[in-house]
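Predict structure. Chain length: 639.
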Amino acid sequence: MARARMDLSVVLVQALVLGVLHAAATVVQVPRGSLPGVTKAYLEEADRRSSEECTTSLLARWAYETNMTEHTRRAQVEALLKLSQWRREVGDVARSLAAASPQLAEEQRRRLHFLSSLDMAALPQADLEEYTNLKTKMMEIHSSARVCDFNDPAKCDLTFSSDLEKLMKTSRDYQELAHAWRAWRDNTGRRLRPQYSRLTTLANKAAKLNGFNSSAEEWLAKYDTSGNLTNVLTEVFQQLAPLYQQLHAYVRRKLRQQYGETHITEKGPIPTHLLGNMCAQHWDEIYPLVEPFPGNGSLNVTQEMEAQGYTVRQMFEAADDFFVSLGLPRMPASFWRKSFFVKPSDRNVSCEAAAWDFCNGKDYRVKMCSEVNMKDLLAAHHSLGVLHYYVQYRHLPHALRQDANPAFHEAVGGSITLSAGSPSHLYKLGLLKNLTEDSEVEINHLMKVALHWIPFISSSYVLDLWRWDISRTHFPDFAWNCAWWDLRFQLQGLKPPVLRTEKDLDAAASNQVIVDTEYIRNYVSTVLQFQFHKALCLKAGQYDPLDPAKPLHKCDVYQSVAAGDTLKAMLSLGRSKPWQVVLGVMTGEPEGRLDTSAMLEYFKPLEEWLTLDNAEHGEHVGWHSDGEYCKTQGPPMNQ
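Prediction complete.
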C-alpha cells in the first residue's frame, strides 16, 4: 500500500537543459502537486528556445535558397539536423508532461501536443541526415536542370524559371512545347526517381515512428483526426466536377481550333503541354486562346503595367496599400530591406515563391523571382496576406504560431487576390482604363479566374491521391508513373504529349513532390479562400445574396475596415483553437466546415454560360481514351 501511495504522489519526467529542470537527459521525480507550476515554467522556456532554434534554422535555409552553393547546402543541413535534435528532446518531455497531467488547460494541452509532433524529426539521426540531403540534392537537380532549345539544338542552357516557364506561356508551336515538356522531365523526373523512391521510404518510416500507418495518414491527421477527411475531399471533388467538366470541354474545343484534330480529338483528353505551364496546374496563361469575348474588357493588365513603367517594388507597394486600407499595419522597413524580390543573374537560387516568418516576431520576408506582370502583382498580394497572418499571431506562444490547419495561410492569401484581381480593383489602381459593366466583361473575368483555380484544385487532389497510394503501397514502384497518368486521365481528362514509361517520374516536375510537402493544402485552401472571400464581402457590404447588383464575383473588400477587423480576429488565433472554430470566427458560425457553396456561387454565371455554349457547339462533355499514354514495365523477371 505504501508503494502505491508513493506512485500517486510523483511522476517521472525526462529532463532537458531548459533552465527549468536541473539535470540533462536524466529522469527526475516531480511531485504531482508541483506539476502545474513545472509545466508552466517548462512551456515558457521551451517557447523561448523553440523560437531561437527556429530562427537559426530558417536563416540557414534562407541563405541556401537565395544562394545555392555546396557551402550553404551543408550549413542548411547542419542547422536542420540541430533543430530536429532539439525537437526530439523537447517532444520527449512534452509527451511525458501531457501523459502525467490529464487536467491541463486547453492552451497548455495544445502546446504540449504540437511540441510532441515530431514529423520527420522522429527519424534516427543518420536517417534524418539522409532525408535532408536527399531533399536538398533534389532541389539542386530541379534548380540547375538545363535543356536544349528546340530551334537551336546546340543551345543547351535553357532554365526553367528564365526560359521554359515563359515558353510554356507564350509558344503556340505544338512540337516546340512537346520538346520543352519532355526535355524538362528527362532532366528532372528521370534523374529524381531513385532519390524519390528512397525519400518515400524514409517518410513512411518517420510516420510509423510517430504512430501512423503511413505518411498519408500523418499528412491527413493535420486536418482531421476523425479519419473522415478523405471522404470529405472526395465529396468536395464530386461537387466541383460538373464545373470542371464544362470548363474542360470548352477549353478542349478552343485548343482543337488552334492545334487541329490531329493533336486534340473531339472526345479525348487534353495534352498537358498545351495548358500554359509545365505541370498544367493553372490554365490562365492560355486565356488569350480561349477568351469568350475577345477584345471586350480584357483583364490582363500586364501591358498597361509595362506602359506605366511599373516596377516590382510598386507591385508590392500596391499590395501593402491594400492591407493598410483594411486597417492592418504596413510592412516594416526590414521587410523591404531583406526580402528577395527579383531573380539575380550571378548565382543559382530557388525561385519557389514563399512568405517567410523567422520566428522572432519581427523578421518577415518574401522570396520571389518577380516580373512586372499581372500574375506577379496578384502573387504579391497573396504573399503579403500570408505575412499578415504571421504578424497577427506573433503574440502567441511559438507552438501555436501556425495557421489553424496547413491550408489557412494559402487560403488567406488567395482570398485577397480575389478582390485584388477584380475589375473594380484594377480600375481603382488605374490599370483598367474603363470599367464596363456588361455580361461579356463579366464572363471574361470569371473565365480568367476559373482557369486559374478550377484546374488547380483538381491537380492538387490528383497529386496527393497519387502520393497517398505510394505511401500506402497500393501499387508497386515499377508502376508509379503509369498510375500517375491513369489518375490524370480519369479525374482530369489530361494526357502526356508523348508516350511515357516507368523510366520517368512525371509527377516530380512539381516542386512540392521533391520538397515532400503535402499538396492537399492547396486543394483545401482553394475551397476555403472562397469561403473567406464571401465572409469578408458580407462584412464589407460589397456582397448581398438577395441583391443581383452585388454578386460575390464582383466584390472588392479594399478600404473596408470592417472586413479587416474580421480578418484580424481570425488570423490572431493562429492554431490556438481547432481549425473549425477558427473558421467559424470568419464565417460567424459556431464551427465552420469545408464548403463548396461559396465557390459554386462565385462561378455560377460562368457555369451556366459554359453549359449553354458547349451545348450550342455540340461539344462532348467528359472524355474517352484515344490512345496509350504510358507503358508499364512489369516486375523484374526474378521476382
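Summary: Confidence is low (pLDDT under 50) at residues 1-12, 14-28.
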